[in-house]
Amino acid sequence: MRSSSEAAIAALPAATPVEEKDTVSVAFVAAALARLTEPARARALAAAGIQAELLRTPQARVTADAFAALWLAAARELDDEFFGLDARRMKSGSFKLLCRSLLPARDLGQGLRRVLQGFNCLLDDVGGELLQRGDEAVVTLHNRVAEAEAHRFAAETFLVLVHGLMCWLAGRRVPLRWARFDYPRPAHAREYAAMYSPESAFEAAETAIAFDAALLAVPVAQDERSLKAFLAAAPRSVFLKYRNEEGMAARVRRRLKPCVESGAEWPQFETVAAELHLSANTLRRRLDAEGASYQGIKDALRRDAAIHLLTGSRLSVEAIAARLGYEDASAFHRAFRKWLNTQPGEYRMRAAPPPST
After folding, report:
1. Which residues form the signal peptide (predicted)?
2. 261 and 225 in a common domain
């Protein structure tokens, strides 16, 4: 008979490659730039290849690579890897030193405690504590950042870093049971289902995330070699650890991804359900329980692919529409406007680099 920790290890999904077509809400771009001077902001945007025009479109998104480059550029400008959110600067190189302190850890519980101890030493206003409440392990955030927007972004950044490191230590996704936040629901709250958990609540008594306490016994799966690879890909390797690869939404996403990559015909919902050996009603309930829907998954895949094709290729809008499976360009225009509140051609112009002089 297996122990609870062995069962938890078996239940964890295998690590999967980072997807190439992930995108990040421009809300995080604006928050990352908030404490930079205007000249520094311009330099950071240029380094990331992000046009300032996109900041005026709240629904806009940027590629994961662009956001990673922006994170690094902002850290260089501020000499602060925590975006200037804390009274004490988290000087450049701090994250690397923190990661190097984790490898002697024997299991996820010990590694996570070292993560939190490290941040508690590096930061004054933001820190965390690991508690066990019954069968749940809970990371509670202490956040003394006063200004509302900075308070929110400090919580988002801290939990992204902590959860990303948890996933790396375990060598795979650590599913969160729930996430709670002590601030009002932000306009970009839909991002939280992927970043943390579909079970996210706002205006709570505390900011915290929870996961199966049995996972604290999962052995650390990393060594010096994998640490070098992780750091070489950071911060992308940290903030793209969110997706729940064991869930039903992820299985549907993997089934549909080839359609957006090759332009193949999209399968009917009932066809996908049958392939997964489920009834259509059961699949719909499973997706709904994860805060997802079949149409929403299709839309997200198409949206991210559209952004990449508009900003990274010379294909016409009509060709992109056909590539993404739309019968005509007008249907693509309507969908894109619904996603980002702008037209694809206008988005391409805003995201395009300025002409050289």
Report:
1. none
2. no
Q: Is residue 90 part of a domain?
A: yes
Residue 357 included in any domain: no
Pairing, β 136-143 against β 23-25: unpaired
**pLDDT, tens digit, 9 for 90 and up, residues 203-262:** 999 999 999 999 999 999 899 998 998 999 899 888 876 445 557 888 898 899 888 877
Q: Using CA atoms, how far apart are residues 11 and 5, in angstroms rounded to an integer?
A: 10
Q: Is the separation of the CB atoms in 39 and 249 below 8 Å? A: no
The radius of gyration computed from the CA coordinates of the chain, to the nearest angstrom, equals 21
Where is average pLDDT lowest: 39-43, 44-48, 220-224?
220-224
Which range has the worst mean pLDDT, 64-78, 152-166, 306-320? 306-320
User: Could you give the residue ranges of the DSSP H alpha helices within 175-293?
Assistant: 192-195, 224-233, 236-239, 248-262, 269-275, 280-289
Judgement on whether residues 69 and 199 belong to the same structural domain of the protein: yes
Query: Are residues 189 and 44 both part of a single domain?
Result: yes
Maximum distance among all Cα pairs of the chain, rounded to whole angstroms? 71
8 A C-beta contact, residue 104 and residue 92: no
User: Residue 280 maps to which CATH number?
Assistant: 1.10.10.60
Tell me: the pLDDT tens digits for 186-205? Answer: 999 988 988 888 789 999 99
- The pTM assigned to this predicted structure is 0.71
Query: Which alpha helices (H) appear in 79-203, and where do they start and end?
Result: 94-100, 108-122, 148-170, 192-195
pLDDT tens string 322-339: 888 888 889 999 999 888
The pair of structure tokens assigned to 181 is 């936040």
Burial class (CB in 10 A: 0-12, 13-18, 19+), 230: middle
- Cis-peptide into 17, omega within 30 deg: no
Which of 212, 239, 266 represents a domain boundary (last residue)?
239
Cα(141)–Cα(160) distance, rounded to whole angstroms? 12
Return the H-helix or E-strand segment holding 8.
helix 4-11
Per DSSP, the chain holds a count of helices (H) and strands (E) of 17, 7
Domain containing residue 328: 248-351
Same domain as 148, residue 68: yes
